[in-house]
Amino acid sequence: MKEDALRDKIPILDDMTARFLYAQVKIKKPKRILEIGFGGGYSTLWMALGNPQAEITSIEKNRERFEKGQEKLKTLPYNINLLFEDARVFLKDLDGRFDFVFIDAVKSQYLNYFQSIENKLNPGSVVFADNIFYRGKLFEEDMSPKKRKEVMKLKEFIKRLNENKKFETLFLPVGDGLSMSLYQGEES
Ligand SMILES: C[S@@+](CC[C@H](N)C(=O)[O-])C[C@H]1O[C@@H](n2cnc3c(N)ncnc32)[C@H](O)[C@@H]1O
Prior knowledge:
The protein contains seven helices and seven strands. Helices cover 38% and strands 24% of the residues.
């Protein structure tokens, strides 16, 4: 899957993040996993390996990636439900609750995704978001207006995570930066 993704120029998790995510799934043994951004399915597979019993829902809005993903998943012995959807629309009406969420799509949309899944978690559930350091751009000044806008949105996401008392959030120097937010339940 890694080779296919690299050949098709689909960005994937770096090795450290893949291993870390795998270990987290293996330790926590979540029953229901949600992934936003299937890409070539590399991260999906790492999570499935962490807990082969988990029910994984993964969302992908690119038709070609979705169709290739469907073909690949047929050959694998895991319970992975790949959906062809735009997460911004789909998550608003999504039913059910998740124990483990991995966000890896458009960085400027992270806050949007997070707000949509906040009320679909059980206490003790965990939400990860990848690339929160944005290859160092988070700390740079000199960039194009488009990039600046993306960075502003990412900073806003990080600020909101820090302020959100329903979650205990760690910003980990894993790969390109990984946030890990543990849902503690509603504030009393
Ligand atoms: C970085 S790639 C995912 C890589 C994958 N998680 C991995 O490591 O193997 C991001 C993917 O998110 C998809 N994506 C972007 N915005 C999306 C949205 N709003 N809803 C669903 N998928 C989206 C893109 O099409 C792309 O394939």
